[in-house]
Amino acid sequence: MHAARNKGHRREPLARDSSGDYVNGMAITSYSERVAAEVRAEMARQQRSQSEVAAAAGWKQPYLNRRLTGYVPFSVDDVEILARVLGVPLAEFVVTRPREATA
């Protein structure tokens, strides 16, 4: 017999603390969220679907979706592959926080 799947169970995105960083046992900085936003923006500019980009990267669509929606952070290797697939420099996805002025 096959084990019953937990149908209808939806995994919620990781909760955020008041600083905007992800929590729930594993620290994921908001930097991951910004990288995902940059990838989503580039995909939108190129009008490329998650399925199309995932296939070109050698992934299944749910793998890409979990990263684009913040369930799982992108790895450095993931971002490098996406830059190649989308034909943009890796630096396009490596966003930095504005530096605060020092007194």
Give the CA-CA distance, first to last residue: 68 Å
- Highest CATH level, the class of the domain at 33-92: Mainly Alpha
> What is the mean pLDDT?
77
Assigned CATH architecture of the domain at 33-92: Orthogonal Bundle
Helix content: 40-55%
Query: What is the total tally of β strands?
Result: 0
The portion of residues forming beta strands comes to under 5%
Overview of this protein structure:
This protein is mainly α. It has a domain at 33-92: 434 Repressor (Amino-terminal Domain) (Orthogonal Bundle), CATH 1.10.260. 42% of the residues lie in helices and 0% in strands. The protein has 4 helices and no strands. It has helices at 30-45, 50-57, 61-68, 76-86. It is globular. The protein starts with 29 loop residues before the first helix and ends in a 17-residue tail after the last helix.
Element layout with pairings:
Elements: H1 30-45, H2 50-57, H3 61-68, H4 76-86
Helix pairs in contact: 2-3
Features:
103 residues; mainly alpha; 434 Repressor (Amino-terminal Domain); 4 helices; 0% strand; globular; disordered N terminus
Short description:
The protein is mostly helical.
